[in-house]
Structure formats: C-alpha cells, structure tokens
Write a structure and sequence with these properties.
By secondary structure, chain A is α+β, with helices and mostly antiparallel strands. Chain A is built from 21 helices and 21 strands. Classes of the chains: A alpha+beta, B mainly alpha.
Chain lengths: 579, 97
C-alpha cells in the first residue's frame, strides 16, 4: 500500500453538488408523518373520542354492585328470629373446566350428587357459568378449594338463618335462594327488609385492585330490622304444649294464639305441625299452613258469650234472668235444637257456664238479625284481621237480610258462620279490655295502653267475664282450664267438622278461648285442636289443658303476680346451726 | 427571553411529574381505603354470623333441654315462687299463702 488510488477529499460523489429537492423531500416526508400523527390524534381525541373512551372503560372501568344486607327479624326482646349470613356457593365454567375424572368424582361426592348429575351440569361447553351448588357449608367449600380443580370457583352469597327453628316458622316464614321472602313476614315485609342495592363505578388496575372512583357512588341502603311483637319464649312454650296435645290426642293439627290485651300485641302465634325453615327439603302443605290465620271453622259455643253480651247490652236479659231450657230440646220449624244434657231452669250465667244451646237460642231469638250481624262485624268476624300476614282469611258472616230464623238460631251457638282462631281470640279482647275491641299488631308497638272501638259497656264486659270464669270452676264445661295461681275464664267450643256438603259424624274440632287473670285481664289465649281421635274430643278436654299451661307460663314470664291463693310448696327449711 | 422560556419549561415539567406522583399516591390510597372498607364489611358480617350462632346456642329449645336433662331442673310454678313487691307500695316481701 504505497499509494492511494482515490483521494477521499476529492471524491467525485462528495464533490458533486446535492440537489436541493432531496433535503426538501425528506423534510416533506417527516412533515407528512407529523401531519398523520396530528390527524390521528385529532381522530382519537376529538372525532371518534367516544368510541375510544368506551373501549378504555371496557378495559379498566368496572361497575361494582354493593349488595344491601337484608334486615334481621327480631322478637320483642331483641332476640334474633332470622338473620342473613354469608355462605359460599360453588360455580363452574364448563368452557375451561379441567376434566379429570378422579377429581370430578371427588367433587361430586363433596357436592352430594352422583357423578352423572355433575357431568350433565358441565356438558354444555358453550356456557361460561353454571351453578354447581348454592349455599354449601364453609367446610365443604374449603375441601372443594383444596381439590384445586381449574374452572371451579366459589362465590359469597347470603343465606337466611332461623335460630329458633320450627316454633316460629309460620310467623317468620322464609326466603328463597335469591333472598326474596316467600312466606310469613319475610314475604309481607320483603321490601322493607330487603333494602336497596347500591353501585359504584371504579377503575381497576392490572391486579384487580380498585385505584380510582368514577362519578358518584350510590351507597347501598341496608334493609331495616323488623321487631315483631312475638315473645320467643312464650311462642316456644305454646308450641311445645300444643305439640304435646296433638300427639297425645292423636289429632291432625293444632294452633295457639296469645294476645296481650294491654298493648294490643300478638305474643305468640303457633301451629303444629310445623317445619324447620332451614331445612325445607320435603315440605308438605299441611306443615306450611299457618292454620291460626288461614283456616276457618265454625266457632261453635265460643260464639255464645258474644250473643249474651249483646243481649245484656240491649237490655233483653240480665245475668240473673231465669230461662227454661227443659226438656233440652227446642223445635224450630223442621229442625230441632238440642243440648248435650237437659238442664231445666238456668240463669243466663248458667246458660254460658253449662253451654246450653237451647238457652242461647231463646235469648238470641229475642234480638233483631241486624243487631246480631252488627255485633259480629264489630268484633271482626267476616273481616280480614288487620295483621300483616299473607293468606289471612276473613271467614264468613252472611248478610243479615238473607238470614232465616233457623239460621239466626244456629248462628247464636256458632254454626252457619266461620272464623279463624285468630279472629276468635281477637273477638274475646272485647270482654278482656272492658268492652273495647283492641286492634292487634304483629309488630312491636311500644305503645303502653291500646284502646279501640267500644262494643260493650264496662259493666256488661265484666258480667260476661264473670260468666266465663264460671265455665272454668266446678259445674262448668272446662275445669281443666284452671291454672295454679291465676284466675281464668273462657269458653269451650266443640264443633263437628264440615266435610263435603254436611257434617262429618266422627270428626271434631275442640277449642278453647280464654282470658287471664279474669279480674284484671292481661292476656287472651285461644287454643284449637283439630280432629282429636284418641277418645276425648271436647274442647274442655283437649284444648283447655293447653290453655291452662300456656297461661301459667306466659303470665309468669310477663311478671304478673298471681291473684289467687297458692299453697306454697317450698320444702327446704333453714335450721339453726347448733354449737 | 429564552431563559424565561426555559424556566417555564422546567416549571411545567416539574408540575407534570408532581401530578403523576400525586395521581399514583391517590390511587394507592384508594386501594388502601377500599381494602379497609371491605375488611370492615367482612368483620361486620362475621359479627352478624357470630350473633346468630350465639343465639342458636341459647334458644329456649336448647336451654330447656339442657336444664331438664343435665341440670335436672323443672318448670317453676307459683307454689315455689316468692314474689317480692317494690318497697314503698308494700314493705314486705311475702310468700303468698
């Protein structure tokens, strides 16, 4: 390399003059590039901005549902009757589930279904969501998670728990898996209990964390707690007692209603057979019925005090007026009205005490049908009770203009009209509340003293209470209603059951409606036993003992001091220590 | 002139960086708050659940069963009850005869 053939400094390429257009061309291309960017920016940010915003939102913005808690149902002392707790529900994505037979078999076992059933649920691979089982136990959900099957997930849902179980089942009712009320107050107050779900729009980051709120949040409105007037202890006790009575008397069903006269509240509303609201696998209609409110029957002899009350009010008779009931039979047209036993001459007091049909009819036939009808209506017969309950029925009282004399006669002792047990109990508040018809509430009122429309004078209500008391003492139809420590009064009823078009000869309903303590009433208790078949069927035999025990426990729990002398049975005696 | 522009440019840059930082902080705080809120909610539901469980352990059915079977208690009657009256209205507390 001694010499160079080309002199760089004199390269012909460099020496040649570059045409100016070339640099201009480059500038133009770059400018065009920038213009393109500007155009694109304008397109993205101005012209089709909405589209891109939406696309962005789809990727980052999420709307979160904020579920509202369903309110609790409490008894009058604040004890929980129903509350919602979170439980896991298992779901799967059939599109990408891992189909490992061994694992799926284990899963099916944990879910309590057979593998074929599970396969059926998972066979549609187009679906991306299918519930496998809703509301499973915590432990089961943990075991399923431990299987680590891809495509099987759990999600938190709310389940209703009813700690009191069957004793309050009819009152509280239940909700379905979607948390909507289906029965009882869960259904009636569904809206207030349910609350209102809220929502919130947020931006989520790559890890799914919420990083920013967008717009205003709609906070969820939790459902209100509902405090019932029910006393869970009274309710439980009444349930146990009616259950016992139904079982020993081999009856079909039974109901008890306990009303607080002073405050106008329902303390207990019990039916047997009942069900456990948490386990509703095999429910029958018989278990589900809230018989005290939905079943009507002919009230039988329990109507007599109402008729006699009206007669006193109209001045037709006095408690001491004598009425000839011999020979225990009364002919009305083609029909004959009979007493169970012939009694001879009875005072009005005794007509009630002995429950004489003939005596009652003789009093009733001196009255106008219109007056009787008005009385029945005033005490709530033939009208739906004002309690918030699905399926409460009105019963039947026909318009007085259509009454024939024989019908007026039979109605006076409780045939030819119908009422529910709750209506009967409510009607007796007239006697208990010194002649006033007290409106009843199933929701705690906190109202000290309730008052209502006057139906009878104070004096006449007291007179009827006296007659009702006579029913429960020696010579009356229900000595079994007596209870230790408290004076009681009430009326028995025994009615043939209606079957088809006539009365079933050997099917009865025994009931008892009573008041305690009789001089200063605090509660009304009504008891009904349906179709007792174990020999005894009179209300005085099957229903009165339940009344007696319920009254005793209820008054004790309410702190009412006994008004009758009781022989103390305190057996321990303190002996002085000797030195 | 160019110096002023430079200063303003710096100020804009600083402000922009500060904005980014604030945004970041605000987002992490939002995450924190969100976590705390859901924790509070979880604790609340847990509390509800425990309340229900406690109640389920103390239902009249269970109490009576335990009292009867394990403690051999029986239902009280007025005959074995002493009623105390509030002092003032009646000074004595007595077993009613």
């Amino acid at each position: 390399m001694s010499s160079r053939s080309v002199q760089y400094t004199s390269s012909p390429l460099l020496a040649s003059k570059t045409p100016i257009w070339r640099s201009q061309f480059i500038v133009a291309v770059i400018a065009a590039g920038f213009l393109g960017l500007v155009a694109r920016a304008a397109y993205v940010q101005v012209i089709d901005n909405a589209f891109f915003k939406r696309q962005g939102a789809v990727r980052f913005v999420r709307t979160l549902d904020l579920p509202a808690n369903r309110g609790r149902i409490l008894d009058r002392h604040g004890n929980i009757l129903a509350s919602s707790v979170p439980v896991p529900s298992i779901w799967a994505n059939p599109e990408d589930i891992e189909r490992d037979p061994a694992k799926l078999k284990a899963l099916a076992k944990l879910l309590g279904m057979n593998p074929a059933e599970l396969d059926k649920k998972l066979q549609d691979e187009d679906k991306t969501f299918v519930w496998l089982k809703r509301q499973v136990d915590d432990s089961v959900a943990k075991e399923i998670a431990a299987l680590k099957i891809k495509g099987v997930y759990d999600r938190k849902e709310y389940k209703r728990i009813y700690p009191e179980g069957e004793s309050v089942a009819h009152v509280v009712g239940f909700t379905n898996v979607e948390n909507l009320g289906q029965e009882g107050v869960e259904l009636t107050f569904n809206k207030a209990l349910g609350g209102k779900a809220g929502s919130r729009r947020v931006i989520k980051d790559r890890l799914g964390r919420v990083v920013e709120d967008i717009g205003e949040m709609m906070p969820p409105v939790d459902g209100e707690d509902l405090q019932l007037s029910i006393d869970s202890k009274v309710q439980y006790f009444a349930y146990e007692k009616i259950k016992e009575s139904v079982v020993t008397n081999k009856a079909v069903a039974g109901s008890v209603v306990v009303l607080d006269i002073k405050t106008g509240e329902v303390l207990a509303l019990v039916n047997y057979p009942s069900y456990s609201p948490g386990k509703r696998g095999s429910l029958s209609g018989a278990q589900l019925r809230n018989r005290a409110l939905t079943d009507t029957f002919e009230p039988g002899s329990t109507m007599k005090p109402l008729v006699v009350g009206l007669a006193l009010e109209k001045g037709i008779v006095k408690p001491e007026t004598l009425i000839q009931t011999a020979p225990g039979k009364l002919q009305m047209g083609t029909a004959t009205i009979t007493d169970a036993h012939p009694h001879g001459v009875l005072s009005v007091n005794e007509v009630i005490q002995k429950s004489s049909n003939v005596g009652t009819v003789k009093i009733a036939m001196q009255m106008q049908p219109h007056d009787m009808w008005e009385m029945f209506t005033q005490v709530g017969l033939g009208q739906k009770p004002q309690v918030p309950f699905p399926g409460a029925v009105a019963g039947k009282v026909r318009a007085y203009k259509t009454w024939r004399p024989i019908e007026q006669a039979t109605m006076s002792y409780g045939y030819g009209l119908s009422a529910s047990l709750f209506q009967l109990a409510q009607a007796y508040t007239v006697f208990a509340h010194d002649g006033e018809m007290v409106p009843m509430s199933l929701v705690k009122t906190n109202q000290a003293v309730a008052s209502g429309a006057r139906v009878l004078s104070v004096q006449n209500a007291t007179a009827i209470r006296n007659m009702l008391h006579m029913v429960t003492i020696q010579g009356g139809t229900a000595p079994k209603a007596q209870t230790m420590g408290y004076s009681v009064g009430g009326k028995t009823g025994t009615a043939h059951k209606v079957e088809g078009k006539g009365y079933a000869s050997k099917k009865y309903r025994g009931f008892f409606v009573g008041i305690a303590p009789i001089d200063n009433p605090r509660i009304v208790v009504a008891v009904m036993v349906d179709e007792p078949t174990n020999g005894a069927y009179f209300g005085g035999d099957v229903a009165a003992p339940v009344f007696s025990q319920t009254v005793q426990q209820t008054l004790r729990m309410m702190g009412v001091q006994p008004d009758m002398a009781v022989k103390p049975q305190v057996v321990t005696k303190v002996e002085k220590e000797s030195f | 002139m160019s110096r002023v522009s430079f200063l303003l440019l710096m100020a804009v840059m600083a402000s922009a960086l500060y904005l980014v930082r604030t945004q970041y902080e605000s987002r992490s705080l939002t995450t924190e708050i969100d976590r705390a809120t859901s924790l509070a909610r979880n604790l609340e539901t847990e509390n509800d659940r425990l309340d229900v469980e406690r109640r389920a352990q103390a239902t009249p059915l269970r109490v009576e069963k335990l009292a009867r079977e394990q403690l051999h208690m029986r239902t009280i009657t007025p005959a074995i009850t002493q009623y105390a009256t509030v002092a003032g209205s009646a000074a004595s507390a007595e077993i009613r005869p």
